[in-house]
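Project outcomes to date are best conveyed with an example. Our students and postdoctoral researchers have been running inverse folding experiments weekly, and each run begins with a structure described purely in tokens. The record below, which covers 73 residues, was selected by the lab manager from last quarter's runs and is presented without edits.
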């Protein structure tokens, strides 16, 4: 299966459903990169360690709240 990142048009529909950035404390990484990284792994069937660096760190994706939302809910 071919992997394609979200277009700007698609992202407009997704972004409002994501948790907001925290007001205090550490800022969350770019949600779009994390989601694209998660989908890359799911579609391509590769290991987390094999994700391209452009999708943020594989550790960041796994620790992300988005990871839990996408896969567990």
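After processing, the design step wrote out the following sequence:
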């Amino acid at each position: 299966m071919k992997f394609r990142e979200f277009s700007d048009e698609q992202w407009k529909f997704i972004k409002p459903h994501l948790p907001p950035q925290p007001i205090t404390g550490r800022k969350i990484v770019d949600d779009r990169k994390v989601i694209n990284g998660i989908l890359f792994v799911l579609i391509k069937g590769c290991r987390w360690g094999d994700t391209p660096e452009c999708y943020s760190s594989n550790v960041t994706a796994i620790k992300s709240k988005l990871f839990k939302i996408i896969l567990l809910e």
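Residues 30-73 form one domain. Residues 49 and 58 are 6 Å apart (CA to CA). The training component of this project remains on track.
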